[in-house]
Amino acid sequence: MLYFGAVCVLGDFQMNLDLTKLLAGSTNSLDFEFRLTQEDCEQLAQDFPQTKFDYPIVLSGNVSTCGDGTYDVNYSSVVGFSEPCARCAGPAHAVLNIHIENKAIRGNKSEESEDYLFVKNKEIDVVSPFFEQIVLEYPQYGILCKEDCKGLCPVCGIDLNKKSCNCRAKTVDPRLAKLSELLKQ
Questions:
Q1: What's the whole-number average pLDDT of the chain?
Q2: pTM for the predicted model, two decimal places
Q3: Mean pLDDT in each 10-residue stretch from start to end of the chain (185 residues)?
Q4: Is the bond leading into 56 cis (omega within 30 degrees of zero)?
């Protein structure tokens, strides 16, 4: 993952949306849909090596003319993915609901800002901001197989969702030994 200023760019992959009809004034609104395959998301897979994304990932949205030389760009996607549970290492599945609202303007790329998408050669890149949003919304501490996952026993390693053990009753963290004695009284 490369960072230029505050803008995250995942590799060199871009998928551009042609705005020729909007720029010519023959329409005020343009609907679009992109289907991203596993090959399209190769860099994303490298950045999240334990994660298996559900493909295809569908981006659907709309670009509309604002009248002041800017364009509203709105699109969304539901991104399903699987990875090992953060507590028990079993299979876990989660969904990210990604929604992007942005403005597109004609301008010089040297005026780059994370607030705008820039129209270049009558096109805008909609996939790079989408990948950036996945990075921002991805669960920082992993996902769980179920909300009340008990995890693994820190002593014997048994999956506490499937079996129970007596390890916790036997061992007390030495730092909490005095507190344990107080609780017994």
A1: 83
A2: 0.75
A3: 30 70 88 90 86 93 88 95 95 96 76 73 89 92 95 91 80 77 78
A4: yes
Query: Which among 82, 116, 114, 117 has a CA at the least distance from the CA of 96?
Result: 82
Rounded to 5 degrees, φ, ψ at 148 are: -100, 35
**Sequence letter at residue 169:** A
Looking at residue 153, its amino acid is: C
Length of the chain in residues, anyone?
A: 185
Residue tagged 């990210």 (tokens)? 96
SS3 sequence, the chain? CEEECCEEECCCCCCEEECHHHHHCCCCEEEEEEEECCCCCHHHHHHCCCCEECCCEEEEEEEEECCCCEEEEEEEEEEEEEEECCCCCCEEEEEEEEEEEEEEEECCHHHCCCCEEEEECCEEECHHHHHHHHHHHCCCCCCCCCCCCCCECCCCCCECCCCCCCHHHHCCCHHHHHHHHHHHC
